[in-house]
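Re-run requested by the PI after the first attempt was lost when the workstation crashed. Everything re-entered from the original request form. Ligand of interest: succinic acid.
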Amino acid sequence: MAFTITPLTAHTGAEVRGVDLARPLDPETAAALNLAWAQFHVLVIRDQRYDPSDFMRAAQVFGTLLQHHQREMHVPRFPEMYFVSNEQTVPGKRFIAGETFHTDHSNHPAPPKATILYPVSLPSSGGDTQYVNMHLAYDELPEAMKRRIDGLKAVHVYLSKYSPRELRPLSEDSRKVLPPPGIHPLVRVHPDNGRKALFLNPVRIESIIGMPDDEALDLVAELMAHATQRTYEYRHQWHYGDMVIWDNRSVMHKANPDYDMSERRYLYRLMLQGEVPIPVEAAA
Ligand code: SIN
């Protein structure tokens, strides 16, 4: 099948046209897509037409599906598939999943390597997803900062007491299946492209091992201010038919709640199993 891969910025994001991932894929095309994903970190695969089973099949071109622990968020009849929606309310409160920069499920000992979205209903304007490249952000840190953070480890819990935003409360069932906190390097090495990346998530980081909390918070804030500069960004404007897969080991992302909330924004969401993050010292 003839297909094209076109970079969307100099460093992050590529657009793929001319593939139909709802149909069986030949191994060469699957390998080329995986290579492009390791290189560009976010792939925007255009003009897809999926029902939930198609979407799950398409996702598995890139890895193994991860069962999601929040059962209340499952798409009915599809326990591996869940959704993000601006209709996620509890009485009197609307939760917009992911509205500050973060990486997904970093409270897990082996956080998901990928997250994948496919839109079912979009607002007429707004609701973009922003991505920032954490390899580039790391590469461009001052050498003294790299030396300071290369060996540090952070404790990621479900919801940090220092989180900049609230998360939708967990049901009793979901709380029971929460894993123990993830203890992860602040700088991780990507297993496929070999590059170092900052691994940050202010929603979940509650402490840095061996550091007083106020110092840890200042450090995370300084790194976040650096990493979320526009120069590291690819901003995705959604169109129907887009399947967007991003690498949680390479980018942080955030959803924009900048649209008319009477319009529905609803996307299917899948995650792929990841590995325990590799610290710098293990890769040296
Ligand atoms: C997320 O944080 O995974 C949601 C992103 C989005 O809705 O754009």
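Saved to the shared folder this time. The mean pLDDT is 94.
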